[in-house]
Design brief:
The chain has about 475 residues and is α/β, with parallel strands linked by helices. The protein has helices spanning about 35-50, 60-75, 80-90, 95-115, 120, 160-170, 185-195, 215-220, 235-245, 270-280, 300-315, 325-340, 375-380, 395-405, 420-425, 460-470; strands at about 5, 10, 15-20, 30-35, 125-130, 135-145, 150, 175-180, 205, 230, 250-255, 260-265, 290-300, 345, 365-370, 385-395, 410-415, 435, 455, 470-475. Helix 10 packs across helix 11 (about 300-315). The longest helix has 25 residues, at about 95-115.
Length: about 475
């Protein structure tokens, strides 16, 4: 797959090329064009112009039909999307087949259904006439698109998370400029081809490739023609984007990092808690913002839990690599730091050897740590790799204090068979999402997002429509 920009309905390859590296074996997959400031200007201009064309007057039913055609196009090229996602990320094929591509198509269908099924939610509500000193008036609210939306998507779930924003942005009538991660450009290019074939007016969707700081990302988020920014990625990058957007007071929606806790109580189904933790800590080699890196286990079952989890982790096979050599080195540096801080390594702790082409790739061992104080950097800082630290607790209040002692607040998990405890504890955890006896069980209509350093705003269902549209009150005196 050759990565290309898509600007104003035209595919182009302006700008110097940089290599796209296979994380499985370190080989070069191809090259990617780095968009110049001029390319970004062209994309934003094309998006702005599209708002004045037929897209700006298209009704909810017509937009819903376009979204469904995009979903059908993704489904029709299912294998191509799977291959591109696997090549870029190195993740197991089954993940792309069961999560990435079906969810991408599902995102467009979900917002088509929401838009067409309840167009009044996206556009108008009414308040009947009422009397005041000035006489009677009728108030109604029109929801209009924000305008040109810049979407910046990450490398860990590139297709899923870009469509998670593109679909509601288009549903609300906005025009989009997408910048995917420079590490994972391929499925965005295939998506642009699908959108081109789906009959979206020229300029409504645009795609620009390249890096972030001092490059495409900075050009886009600081552009005066951008009316809103939706970003998923690291908290530090989100802060930089916010500073860049401040000059134009551009509204932002951020889904940022996490250092997610799990609480395992003594009354939990321990085998289910172990199974769930294997998923929550090591899915996609820990490269998901929702993954669990801090696990707190009631002391009476602490040793048993550690023993069972370590045995499962030592037996893991078929896991994928880190996205890049740089990220592999970052994760390994935390493994070394954990040792320096006094951790006991009960599983993993280094880089594996396969004696095949994977030894040229970017793999690290799934790792389980114990014995660190809460002040340790390994416990405080997001690692974004296949690693977790387990610590004991004695009381429910202590467990809550440990879970909440973090600058992050994205997701958490509680393992207990005590119904009262589940309802008592869950609302007290300072995260945007709390799962009880499960992990990453998602209803796409529910609010998704974090608190503290983990984000601003919520995505999902009508919450996304709230961000991507702007309410305007109209008051008519009768």
């Amino acid at each position: 797959m050759k990565a290309q920009h898509y600007v104003g309905g035209v595919f182009r390859s302006d700008g110097p090329a940089f290599p796209l590296i296979d994380p499985v074996d370190g080989s070069e997959l191809g090259t990617v064009p780095e968009a110049t400031r001029e390319v970004v200007d062209d994309a934003v201009t094309a998006a702005g112009a599209a708002l004045k064309g037929p897209w700006g007057t298209m009704g909810a039913e017509e937009r819903a039909a376009v979204l469904r055609r995009i979903a059908d196009g993704i489904q029709a090229r299912f294998e191509e999307f799977v291959a591109a996602e696997v090549a870029d990320t190195g993740r197991p094929r089954a993940f792309a087949e069961t999560v990435d591509v079906p969810r991408a198509a599902g995102n467009f269908r979900a917002y088509a259904d929401l838009l067409y099924g309840r167009p009044e939610r996206a556009y108008t509500t009414q308040i009947p006439g009422w009397s005041s000193g000035a006489g009677q008036a009728l108030n109604y609210t029109v929801r209009r698109p924000l305008g040109v939306v810049a979407i910046i998507s990450p490398w860990n779930l590139p297709l899923l998370l870009s469509t998670w924003k593109i679909a509601p942005a288009l549903a609300c009538g906005n025009a989009v400029v997408l910048k995917p991660s420079e590490e994972t450009p391929s499925t965005a290019t295939v998506l642009a081809q699908v959108i081109n074939e789906a009959g979206l007016p020229e300029g409504v969707f645009n795609l620009v490739h390249g890096h972030g700081a001092g490059a495409v990302g900075e050009f886009l988020t600081g552009h005066e023609g951008v009316d809103a920014i939706a970003f998923t990625g690291e908290s530090a990058t989100g802060a930089a984007i916010m500073r860049n957007a401040a000059d134009h007071v551009t509204p932002v929606s951020f889904e940022l990092g996490g250092k997610n806790p799990a609480l395992v109580f003594a009354d939990a189904d321990l085998d289910a808690a172990v199974d769930g933790t294997v998923r929550s800590s090591f899915t996609h080699s820990g490269q998901i913002c929702l993954c669990t890196e801090r696990i707190y286990v009631e002391r009476s079952v602490f040793d048993e839990f550690v023993e069972k989890l370590a045995a499962r982790v030592k037996a893991l096979d078929g896991y994928g690599p880190m996205i890049s050599a740089e990220h592999r080195d970052k994760v390994l540096s935390y493994y070394r730091l954990a040792k320096e801080e006094g951790a006991t390594i009960v599983a993993g702790g280094g880089a594996p050897t396969f004696n095949d082409e994977r030894d040229g790739g970017f793999y690290v061992e799934p790792t389980v740590l114990t014995g660190l104080p809460e002040t340790a950097r390994t416990v405080r800082e997001e690692i974004f790799g296949p690693v977790c630290h387990i610590a004991p607790f004695d009381t429910e209040d202590e467990a809550l204090a440990l879970a909440n002692n973090s600058p992050y607040g994205l997701a958490s998990t509680v393992w207990t068979t005590n119904l009262s405890r589940a309802h008592r504890v869950a609302p007290k955890i300072e995260t945007g999402i709390v799962w009880v006896n499960c992990w990453n069980l998602r209803d796409l209509r529910t609010p998704f997002g974090g608190v503290k350093a983990s984000g601003i705003g919520r995505e999902g269902g009508e919450y996304s429509l709230d961000f991507f549209s702007e309410p305007v009150n109209v008051c008519i005196q009768i």
